[in-house]
Specification:
Layout lengths: L6 E2 L10 H13 L9 H20 L6 E6 L2 H15 L6 E5 L4 H12 L3 E5 L9 H7 L4 E5 L13 H9 L5 E4 L17 E5 L10 E6 L24 H36 L5 E3 L9 E6 L4 H10 L2 E2 L15 H5 L4 H5 L1 E5 L6 H17 L2
Parallel strand pairs: 1-11, 3-4, 3-5, 5-6, 6-7
Antiparallel strand pairs: 2-8, 7-8, 9-10, 10-12
Helix pairs in contact: 1-7, 2-7, 3-4, 7-11
The protein binds 4'-deoxy-4'-aminopyridoxal-5'-phosphate (PMP).
The site of 4'-deoxy-4'-aminopyridoxal-5'-phosphate (PMP) has 13 residues, from α3.
């Protein structure tokens, strides 16, 4: 997996697919290319692969038949389907919904859209570590709250919410369901999935393929469809099902959970090495907290422009990210870092390192010495 010419520290943006995933995808696209809705042999063959993929997703997550899997193009679409699909279907039960200020845009933009439709939204603050306090959720819950959406691991700073405790608060109201954007936790952090009513997976974050993902939800939950047409995916997402992508997602999920205990130990070591190198460097302020994910380490530059540093590092073969890949082109400042109570300059100049299995212990030394050189040379 390692490319000798560069050091890749942007795994929260995307990951390199496992070779097994690519070969499975190629095999299915060349030999098992039937439409899973066709009733002839090749269609039945494709359908059986699709059914196996669905079952493998649930098995890898240790979930039973009280959950269902809706395949999507990734986590953005799955978050949209869950939030919009639930709120639009069940708005007669209540129009109050809750999320936090540091959610991914694929969640926040759904809430903003629902506001335009007359929903009343509470955007919860986070504490200085980027965590939603259970008490603040308790205070925000109302009789007419129908949905709460809180991410498990934040994609910019790696803060981790106490999903189990938050879900208990939500479920004190029998009308409310709990959705979580679990994109950055899948295969990385231990989560009690059965405490969550709806959660999402993105294939390309777990060494699967871009364009693959799914929504996992409790079987009894009904949603309004988002894509109208032939009624595929339980009537929620019409269109010919990309069976090979679905199978590639299930394969990536199976592999990442098989490797999880070894990988998390490896990543914890890498994280510690980077942290040791960075925390005492001049001109740097950490935004991540060691209670958070060991896959993400975020800091701000006090006197340098992050975009210039990212470019200079890139020219030397070190790939890191500033703000987050999802909105770094249109928005130069991090609303997540601002939500921690930090000033505009710090929010403007964040660097995110995100680790993966291809990182080695040597990478921290190379990164730190290169960063020091870069900071000395640029103005
Ligand atoms: N949620 C989070 C927390 C993410 O990090 C991302 C990817 N940046 C997404 C949602 C969207 O994932 P996808 O690229 O699969 O649409």
């Amino acid at each position: 997996m390692k490319n000798a010419n560069h050091i890749y520290l942007d795994h929260a943006a995307t990951t390199k697919p496992y070779p097994e995933v690519v070969s499975l995808f190629t095999k299915l696209e060349t030999e098992h290319y039937g439409n899973s809705s066709s009733i002839h042999g090749l269609g039945i063959d494709a359908l059986s692969y699709l059914n196996k993929a669905r079952a493998l997703v649930l098995k890898s997550l240790c979930l039973g038949s009280n959950y269902k899997v809706i395949f999507t193009s990734g986590a953005t679409e799955a978050n949209n389907l869950a939030i919009l699909g639930y709120c639009l279907k069940h708005q007669s039960r209540g129009k109050h919904i809750i999320t936090s200020k540091i959610e991914h845009p694929s969640v926040l933009e759904c809430f903003k859209y629902l506001e335009t439709l007359g929903f009343d939204v509470t955007y919860l603050n986070v504490n200085r570590y980027g965590v939603v306090e259970v008490d603040s959720l308790k205070k925000a819950m109302r009789k007419d709250t129908i949905l709460v959406s809180l991410m498990s691991t934040n994609n910019e700073i790696g803060s981790i919410n106490n999903i189990e405790e938050l879900s208990k608060v939500v479920h004190e109201n029998p009308k409310a369901v709990f959705h979580s954007d679990t994109t950055q936790s899948i295969g990385k952090d231990h989560l009690n999935f059965s405490s969550i009513d709806m959660f999402v997976i993105s294939g390309h974050k777990i060494h699967g393929l871009k364009g693959s993902g799914c929504l996992v939800l409790k079987d009894k939950i009904s949603l309004q469809e988002r894509v109208f047409g032939g009624g595929q995916e339980d009537g929620l997402r019409s269109g010919t099902v990309p069976v090979s992508l679905c199978c590639s997602l299930a394969k990536a999920l199976e592999i990442i959970y098989q490797k999880m205990s070894i990988e998390t130990q490896h990543i914890s070591k890498i994280y510690q090495q980077f942290l040791d190198k960075i925390r005492n460097m001049e001109g740097i302020e950490l935004n991540s907290n060691s209670a958070g994910s060991k896959y993400i380490l975020n800091f701000s530059l006090l006197n340098k422009k992050a975009s210039v540093v990212v470019e200079a590092l890139s020219n030397l073969g070190i790939y890191v990210s500033s703000v987050s890949a999802c909105h770094s082109k249109k928005e130069a400042s991090s609303y997540v870092v601002k939500a921690l109570g930090k000033n505009e300059n710090l929010a403007h100049n964040t660097i995110r390192l995100s680790f993966g299995e291809d990182n080695s212990e040597n990478d921290a030394d190379v990164f730190a010495s290169t960063l020091i050189k870069v900071m000395e040379t640029i103005r």
